[in-house]
Amino acid sequence: MGHREILALAIFALTYLLISGRRLKMLPLNRPAAALLGTVLMVLAGVLTPEQAYRAVDYDTLVLLLGMSLISAYLYLAGFFDWTADWVLRTAGTPRRLLLYLILTSGVLSALLVNDTICFMLTPLVVAVVVRGRLPLLPYLLALAMSANLGSVATLVGNPQNMIIGHLSHLRFLHFSAALLPVAAAGLAIQYGILARGFRRELGAAALPEGREPVEFAARPLDRRLLGITLGVLGLVFAGFLAGFDLSWTALSGAALIMVLARRDTHEVLKLVDWHLLLFFAGLFVVVEGLNSTGAPDQLFARLHGLFGRTAGAQAWNLAWFSVAGSNLFSNVPFVLVAGKWIPGFAHPALMWQVMALATTFAGNLTILGSVANIIVVESARGHLEVGFWDYAKYGIPVTILTTVTGMLILLALA
Q: What angle do CA 362, 89, 105 make, to 5 degrees?
């Protein structure tokens, strides 16, 4: 191994240490900053030239993220998320039913929009209502975070790693969802069963306030005109997805159309875009390309390939557990970027892409640090409840194991 390869591996290891762990006291960088640092080091160390770094960035994924983020931002400005939270709380009736409705709402919205965005938009509303209604907060926080992860597996735009898989695999949107939608539905049902049973005493002892309006909270007023425009364009965007149009430019075209029709100051909506996530992705693409240039991932796969088995079924199960472990060690997006190169070497590549999507998404429910969605929910609620590692893992571990096993059985049955 030469000097350049050693430098690339060292920079990769440093970057992923910063990404997968908590902030270090001596180097207090968040994930986007860590990815940016890794990018700069790859170029300064001579592992990649500036031109190679530019070419490493997958702009299709960034464009897709930008387009879906803009559409989500317009839904927020229209008051859609406030209205949705208010409707769920007014129609639930009982704490147990509220748990079910929240899981279904979060799961469905996460399949249509990016799961991180759903958690960011809904968490403050859910916390405000649950606290003022004097209900136990923990089951609803877990319900929101876990269902956002589970529901997002159903489409190629549900979460960041699925977006990358969609670009790398060239799977059709409809074909992907036909296989993963039943998996997501089964996962949400399992999650509800585990949380409802685990919190049966707390939910049984609690009660929503009587009356038609359970809790009053300051909701953003509903802009029916903007909501109608955004939902109409979102419908057109998904029609384009189903028709096989390019995912990235279909989403961005929809966002641009809303900008034209909305007739509102675009500064307001652009402030709501998660630019940190876009920077994080751009940096990751460069860092992973630096690692790939050493040939280390290919050498690792050559050594491990025999352990996955020879039949499609054996390879699917082994890839699933390997992906769950890798996603929790390195985070799901970095894992997909590295391991995605291996999929063409398997017996049934289309199935393996679906397995990777399932396993890396459901792996996010294993621990509190398993996905960005979990961190968003926990951090947003920190002022009202400190969720510990084992508070989450006690439910996250069984949810992850049961949903992954059930999902794999469904996926293989449909293959």
A: 30
Rounded CA separation 206/325 (Å) = 37
Q: What are phi and psi of 289, to 5 degrees?
A: -65, -40
In eight-state DSSP terms, residue 387 is -
Token pair for residue 247? 């995912």
DSSP string, 8-31: HHHHHHHHHHHHHSPPPSSS---H
Q: Which residues contact 34 (CB under 8 A, 6 or more apart)?
A: 15, 18, 19, 283
For 34-61, the pLDDT digits (tens) are 889 999 999 999 999 999 999 999 899 8
What local confidence, expressed as pLDDT, does residue 28 receive?
Answer: 66
What stretches of 21-156 show up as alpha helix (H) in DSSP?
31-44, 50-56, 59-77, 80-92, 95-112, 115-132, 137-152
Instruction: Give the DSSP H or E segment for 295.
Output: none
pLDDT digits (tens, 9 = 90+) for 194-214: 999 999 988 887 666 554 444
Task: Compute the distance between CA of residue 232 and CA of residue 272 in angstroms, rounded to an integer.
Answer: 21
Q: Residue 115 pLDDT more than 70?
A: yes
HSE on the CB side for 37, CA within 13 Å? Answer: 18
